[in-house]
Amino acid sequence: MQTTFPQLLLNHASQRPSDTAMREKEYGIWQGISWSALAAQVEQLACGLYQAGLRQHDHMVVIGANRPRLYATMLAVQSLGAVPIALYQDAAALECVFPLNNADVAFAFAEDQEQVDKLMEIREQCPQLAHVYFDDPRGLRNYDEPGLTALDALIEAGKAFSAAHADFFRQEVAKVQPDDVAAMFFTSGTTGNPKGVVHTHDTLLNRARAGAEFDNLTHAEDVLAYLPPAWIGQNIFSYAQWLSCGYVVNCPESAATVTIDLKEIGPTYYFAPPRVFEGLLTSVMIRMEDAGVFKRKMFHYFMDIAKRVGPTLMDGKSVPLADSVLYALGNFMVYGPLRNNLGFSRVRVAYTAGEAIGPDLFSFYRSIGVNLKQLYGSTETAVFVCLQPDHEARADTVGVPCKGVEIRVADNGEILVKSPGLLKGYFKNPEATAEVLTADGWYHTSDAGFLDAHGHLKIIDRVKDVGRIKGGANDGAMFAPKYVENKLKFFSHIKEVVAYGDGREKVCVMINIDFDAVGNWAERRNLPYAGYTDLAQKPEVYQLIKDCVEKVNADLSVDTLLAGSQVSRFLVLHKELDADDGELTRTNKVRRGFIAEKYHVLIDALYGGETTQFIETQVKFEDGRTGSVSATLRIEEAKTFAPVQAAA
Fold first, then answer.
1. Where are the beta strands (DSSP E) in 283-424?
2. What is the pLDDT at residue 635?
3. Is the pLDDT of residue 487 over 90?
4. Does domain 467-637 have CATH number 3.30.1490.270?
5. 233, 383 in Cβ contact below 8 A?
6. 275: which residues sit within 8 A by CB, 6+ positions away?
7. Do the bridges between strand 59-63 and strand 83-87 make them parallel or antiparallel, or are there none, so unpaired?
8. H or E element at residue 553
């Protein structure tokens, strides 16, 4: 079944016009929009954009949070055969210059004054940007910029055009074909300029349907759309699958109200990167530490039962009667209220992806009755490559290949993928396209891994990052930095890690503490601190982190492949790694090369045997101002363990 996004919208509007398509929370109240009302709004926007000059194959940027009118604008653009490009709403103005110029963008949707200011700031560098439409007019009354127009005015112009040309919209929708370009997603650009990943209606919808069939999704699902629309994961879950299945997408009021809105909506289908699940669990554990003695003891008693019994029950297996009764009692007294408090009381399917999730974290959610699973994919594969079946969810794999996917492991360990969801190519970049797509249709993922005996895919690290220890007792041992980083990030007190060791005789890491978790830990111990920098350098905090590092080393010592990747020395950074400072991508992935260059003095100190090192770093604040943070950082040794030989 081939179709397009606008055609699916019209199908829903025709078949169930009064059903709710989306909800938006404004001023504390949830307001719904029906499929028929949404289709009418899309028609008006499409007619208005056509009058303004938007044509087939043109590009239009949309910047903002998840909102019905942002989604309607994307659908309107696609209805004309043009291509929407969502950009990250928290991107700095200069980060928008390359995408706008690379795609020759003349039209833009900006959610509010913040996004309008961003576009106005770079307009001289993007002279082709002729039309900017804003949704929220607050703060924009006195703006006098050529081409700056309220979205309401565009809708009114579209209404008049539609009234005079009754069949225009449906005729335009009919012209759009499944193999036409539907969207472009710019990669995070960790090693240079971002690349525009081109996807057709068919590639995106094919993967959306494959995921929906795998988990039996229907129009009865409720989804919370809270992640950036520029990220393809959000686009698949809240746009492609939304239009494919016809379920309800709910847009939170703001980033600050997401946890409250999550509880109010109680989604049935939920997606979050591991960091979100970590944050939710950290908040639970912080509250439990502050609870009364009886409640705290009851929580830990039943959580011990859940850890022992819950995952087995989630896998559809039986447990002894006594354990079954205790788990049911725990479900009534602890697990059920906890799921409700987290907003997961109605979750039928929950996914995590993007980074490895810690085994303890993964088991925690499954033990309390949340069907948390992992998936594997990327922007270039339209997300769905591997998915975990309901009763085969494991923390150390990312699932089995889903419908239409073939996987091959190259001689160097790289995962190659063939799928109906592969990108059409990188925009204006045939050289980069040729590097990742072979002539016979295989996509180079750049990930190293293997298929286990059960057919599940296991990812080790990025191929380019997998290195070797050189010299010392572990000479020649494999080094997988992301694997080490993720094992450390499994601890709630550690937020971010950057590991180095390739071509060196030992592994050293730089660590960011989780300010909330460690701050709460310090307060319970009456340990005073004056902010992040002060807290990070406390001897007590170093001992806390050292314990985490040494536990990871003990785990690594029994890993035949990676025993040589144990951490010898570490330091705790004086500031949090930040995308605004170039240290992380907009999807919160570590830019290891950039950090190595920026903090070379710290790396030299780690490998040079120093015990302290002074550092001063320039930082960028949210309001655009710059400043500096300085500190003398401690450098600690960590205990390493002799590799444990596997039993014969």
1. 349-352, 372-376, 386-387, 400-401, 406-409, 414-418
2. 96
3. no
4. no
5. yes
6. 355, 588
7. parallel
8. helix 539-556
CA distance 148 to 156: 15
User: Which range has the worst mean pLDDT, 113-122, 209-218, 241-250, 624-633?
Assistant: 624-633
Q: What is the 3-state secondary structure (H, E, C) of 186-231?
A: ECCCCCCCCCEEEEEHHHHHHHHHHHHHHCCCCCCCEEECCCCCCC
C-alpha span between 123 and 128 (Å, rounded): 8
Residues 342-361 have pLDDT tens digits of 999 999 999 998 777 877 78
3-state DSSP of 269-287:
EEECCHHHHHHHHHHHHHH
pLDDT reported for residue 602:
96
Work out whether strand 457-462 and strand 443-451 pair parallel, antiparallel, or are unpaired. antiparallel
Is the confidence at residue 62, as pLDDT, over 80?
A: yes
Helix axes 293-314, 321-330, angle to 10 degrees: 130
Q: Which two tokens stand for residue 553?
A: 């080393």
**Exposed, middle or buried, 641 (CB in 10 Å: 0-12/13-18/19+)?**
middle
pLDDT at 191: 59
Q: By the 8 A CB rule, do 376 and 297 touch?
A: no
pLDDT of residue 478: 84
Which pLDDT does position 623 carry in this prediction? 67
| Band of pLDDT at residue 390, cut at 50, 70 and 90 | very high
- Under CATH, which number does the domain 5-203+226-254 receive? 3.40.50.12780
- 94-108, 308-322, 424-438, 479-493: least confident range: 479-493
Q: How far apart are CA 320 and CA 295, in angstroms?
A: 26
88 CB contacts (<8 Å, ≥6 apart)? 63, 95, 228, 230, 231, 586
Contact 176, 9 (CB under 8 A): no
DSSP one-letter code for 531: S
CA angle 360, 384, 8 (to 5 degrees): 130
Neighbour count for residue 637 (Cβ, 10 Å)? 13
Distance of CA 88 to the CA centre of its chain: 12
598's tokens: 């920026």
Rounded to an integer, the average pLDDT of 328-355 is: 93
Report pLDDT for 647. 42
Segment 467-486 mean pLDDT: 86
In the chain, where are the structural domains located? Answer: 5-203+226-254, 467-637
Helices (H), 83-220: 97-102, 113-121, 151-164, 168-175, 201-214
Long-range residue pairs from 587-596, CB within 8 A, at least 24 positions apart, any chain? 587/188, 587/231, 587/354, 588/273, 588/275, 589/188, 589/190, 589/355, 590/485, 590/496, 590/497, 590/498, 591/190, 592/465, 592/481, 592/498, 592/500, 593/190, 593/191, 594/190, 595/498, 595/510, 596/500
Nearest partner of 461 among 443, 483, 445, 477, judged by Cα = 483
Predicted pLDDT of residue 443: 97
Cα–Cα distance, 134 to 176 (Å, whole number): 27
CA distance 518 to 494: 8
Helix-strand-coil split of the chain, %, nearest 5: 40, 20, 35
For residues 548 and 491, the answer to whether their CB atoms sit within 8 Å is yes
Give the CA distances from residue 26 to residues 111, 266, 307, 576, in Å, rounded to whole numbers and listed in that order. Answer: 14, 18, 39, 32
* Average pLDDT of span 377-402: 94
How far is residue 629's CA from residue 63's CA, in Å, rounded to a whole number? 31
Each residue's pLDDT tens digit, 276-322: 898 888 888 888 878 888 998 999 999 999 999 999 999 999 999 99
